């Protein structure tokens, strides 16, 4: 069965993180939907380093049946992209629904603190990571851990652009199995992240 993942973006989303997440997942056979949250909807979105891309859709155009079909939600960081994502009512609704269904929820860079925290996704999650500058912005009860990728239950967090391939590979392992993630890592000529070595 083909796995499906939603990747939301906004003006100021981190270019490398978006690219790595989508590239790794697609290499692993995942059906990725990149959805803008910007209002009013526009044909393109300008990322943090001024790369202009055309998303697959706008988040408001996803039907309830569509977003309930996602096996995961992976949120790139970057500023002010994370702030825009945090202000999206539809994204919050989707995140909370997918969490309740036990689906994978992941965020990297600023987004664990700026998006997952305010959405209530980190409630009951004792350990997470983020871009170091946001370590003190995680919600009470969630301790910041200096690890490239942190997985607790179905919540996955990571630190930034330099950890985005690891983040995506661990997500792929959860969605499609460890062997598929190792296969993609080998094709990319990158060492498997430590969580893969411990058989996620």
Automatic annotation (TrEMBL):
This is DJ-1/PfpI domain-containing protein. The keyword Lyase does not apply. SUPFAM superfamilies: Class I glutamine amidotransferase-like. The keyword Nuclease does not apply. InterPro entries: Class_I_gatase-like, DJ-1, DJ-1/PfpI, Prot/Nucl_acid_deglycase. GO terms for cellular component: cytoplasm. Keywords: Repeat. One of its GO terms (biological process) is glyoxal metabolic process. It comes from Bodo saltans.
């Amino acid at each position: 069965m083909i796995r499906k993942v939603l990747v939301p973006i906004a003006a100021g989303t981190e270019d490398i993180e978006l690219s790595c997440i989508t590239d790794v997942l697609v290499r692993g056979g995942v059906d990725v939907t990149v959805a803008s949250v910007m209002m009013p909807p526009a044909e393109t979105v300008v990322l943090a380093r001024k790369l202009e891309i055309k998303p697959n859709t706008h988040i408001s155009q996803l039907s309830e049946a569509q977003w309930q079909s996602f096996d995961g939600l992976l949120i790139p960081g970057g500023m002010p992209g994370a702030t825009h994502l945090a202000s999206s009512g539809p994204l919050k609704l989707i995140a909370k629904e997918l969490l309740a269904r036990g689906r994978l929820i992941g965020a990297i860079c600023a987004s664990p603190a700026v998006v997952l925290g305010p959405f209530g996704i980190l409630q009951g999650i004792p350990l997470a990571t983020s871009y170091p500058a946001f370590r003190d912005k995680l919600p009470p009860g969630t301790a910041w851990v200096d690890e490239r990728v942190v997985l607790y239950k179905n919540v996955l967090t990571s630190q930034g652009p330099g950890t985005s391939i690891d983040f995506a590979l661990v997500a792929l392992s959860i969605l499609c199995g460890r062997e598929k993630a190792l296969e993609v890592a080998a094709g990319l000529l990158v060492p498997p992240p430590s969580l893969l070595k411990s058989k996620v």
